[in-house]
Amino acid sequence: MPDMQSSSIVSPDDLNITNLGPREIPTPACKMDFPAEGSCWHADGDRIALNDHMDSIREAMKIDIDPPSIELAGPRREIFFNPADTCIAIVTCGGLCPGINDVIRAIVMQAYYTYGVRQILGIQYGYEGLDPSFGHKPIELTPDMVMNIASFGGSFLGSSRGKRDVKVMANRLEALGVDILYVIGGDGSQRGALAIHEEMQRRNSRTAVIGVPKTIDNDIMFMDRSFGYQTAFAAAFHAVISAHTEAKGARNGLGLVKLMGRDSGFIACSAALATGEANAVLIPEVPFALEGETGLLAMLEQRIASRGHAVLITAEGAGQNLIPESGQTTDASGNKLHADIGLFLKDRIIAHFKQRKIELNVKYIDPSYLIRSVPASPEDRIFCLNLGRHAVHAGMAGKTGMVVARWHQSYVHLPMSLVTRGRRKVDPTGDLWRSVVESTGQPARIGV
Ligand code: F6P
């Protein structure tokens, strides 16, 4: 069971997927002559256990109920929307992430070629594009337009942060005649998508809203991982390798790397594990102390004395309690804006070694947006392709208020209301953090 995505708080009702209505149209997705009995076809009753730990399955069996389970993604034999009359729209919201263009491309290709949908709109600059007061016109998307977009990072449609009035957005979708809206975005954007879905339900509208969760921070709940995360930590890997090279190339060298990860330290942990070069990793989930015999400063002093160099990785959200001027401001998405832990640590470490009269050469690396503006890795590209394919299967089947995700290696449908309940965090008692502690040799808690 991955970290703190506690399934014990989830009831079977929390996992129900809303369907717009009966499916009466035979799917054109079978035109590919795929064997009728093939295991890719799924009915809504095909499900996997939310928690695959035997204890939880036995618990349910003891009282003769099914353990909480999730609907499998995949083509349905009958669909809800008639492709010839269907208009779909795609919007990308929030910060950039490797793979956004892959998902756009996959949705367009799947809708166009597998289902024969011809009306495909690209909404520009996130939810701003659904508010006419911004004046962003939708773009009509075709396979030719999106064919090569996956070679680039970023979003072909543009993105933006921030909430917009849900009634205004719903009116806009109705005016454009959109039947299925695809929202590629993080947890805040999926909350926006949930609000649009609820507004459409209140209006008794036949509009489906399907999410594709996106974040390099890997902080969305109930999924194996989010797309873009693997590419981002692969880019961060190079920053850590460089920090190690620089640290070793100087007398008493310290390579200090600050990595993105606002409230979750997955990128910092994975970059440390992949390189095997970090001597300590600081993440938002695990508090640490600078001072004292077992604090970070003393730890670095010992490491430099014994090995002549050190590598320290900090996630941007780590140690915020230590920074006096740490503010309470938020960005347009409502995320807390953090003070700069990288520069703070750099100054404090330099001051400490100076005061102790020990030579130290700090090489500070902050790759910042470099890790998320790159094109997706081949592994993420396949992942994005599959998320896009399954998003189209789900939308055409008339599913709504849900996201596509991978869970226990299967593609699944999850209610938006479930995945937006909170943020996924590194579990300080779980195996990921333990692997970091074992790999770096740092204590599970530094100085606290
Ligand atoms: O996507 C999440 C994230 O990568 C955070 O780690 C980071 O704080 C944030 O985006 C910064 O994005 P922006 O500067 O675009 O708001």
What can you tell me about this protein's structure?
With 448 residues, the protein is of the alpha/beta class. It folds into two domains: 7-226 and 376-419, Rossmann fold (3-Layer(aba) Sandwich); 229-373 and 429-440, Phosphofructokinase domain (Rossmann fold), CATH 3.40.50.460. Helix content is 32%, strand content 17%. The protein is built from twelve helices and 17 strands. The chain has a nine-stranded mixed β-sheet, sandwiched between helices. A four-stranded parallel β-sheet has the order 12-13-11-14, sandwiched between helices. A two-stranded antiparallel ribbon has the order 1-15. α8 links the parallel β12 and β13. α4 packs across α5. The radius of gyration is 24 Å and the shape is elongated. The two termini are 27 Å apart. The protein binds 6-O-phosphono-beta-D-fructofuranose. Residues 95, 215-217, 260-262, 316, 331, 372 line the site of 6-O-phosphono-beta-D-fructofuranose.
User: Which regions are unreliable across 5 or more consecutive residues at pLDDT < 50?
Assistant: none
Supply Rg: 24 Å
Helix residue percentage: 25-40%
The major beta sheet can be summarized as: 9 strands, mixed
